[in-house]
Amino acid sequence: MATLLEVAQLQQVQQLQQTALIKKNFVQLDPGVVLTLPPPVNVSPKVISQTPAQGSFVPRGSKVNLTLGNGRTLPATVVQGGLASWNTLTLGTLYDQNLAGDPLVDGLVAKFDQQGALSTSEQTLLQNTLSAKGVQFGSGTGSDINAALQSLVAARTFNGLGV
After folding, report:
1. DSSP letters for 25-64
2. What are the counts of helices (DSSP H) followed by strands (DSSP E) for the chain?
3. Residue 19: its pLDDT value, please?
4. Peptide bond into 52 cis (omega under 30)
5. Residue of 155 and 39 predicted with greater confidence
6. % pLDDT > 70, the chain
7. 70 with 56: CB under 8 angstroms?
8. Quick one: which of 129, 146, 134, 139 has its CA closest to 80?
């Protein structure tokens, strides 16, 4: 019968293998070694843009240009209407700093993504939570909570939880 530690190590190894971080030559961990893994990240490519646009009718056999990416390295500037103060960051960094391990922020962003809006109290809660993380807001376009939500929806979508 396996110990709890052995089961945890096996699950961690399986997680690593599934994310293609380990392909072969796995070394057996010594008892007592703690393996800390980064949060799971969706590395499957997603369509970033395409021409003709999604939903367009084209004759069978027509060429479609797709731009694919995993999103972690995309600059936040790709988000139309996103928070201007995040323009120097990548979507992966936005995800890691604001969504990963924060069920409150993740839940509010998911709700906004699904319903298209948050109540005033939810917006205030989100803004206060993000402010506590060092995010600065203003009142103009590109500096308010709606701009932050646009950026966070993109970060969530391209980093595994919005799929």
Report:
1. -PPPPPTT-----PPP---S-EEEEEESPTT----TT---
2. 5, 2
3. 47
4. yes
5. 155
6. 67
7. no
8. 146
Mean pLDDT for all residues in the chain: 77
Q: Which two tokens stand for residue 105?
A: 């922020």
Measured at the alpha carbon of residue 68, what is the angle toward residues 38 and 154, in degrees to the nearest 5? 55
Residues whose CB is less than 8 angstroms from the CB of residue 2 and which lie 6 or more positions away in sequence, other chains included: 10
130, 143 in Cβ contact below 8 A? no
Q: Which two tokens stand for residue 95?
A: 């995800």
Instruction: Tell me the C-alpha distance between 99 and 45, whole Å.
Output: 20
Q: Is the pTM of this model over 0.85?
A: no
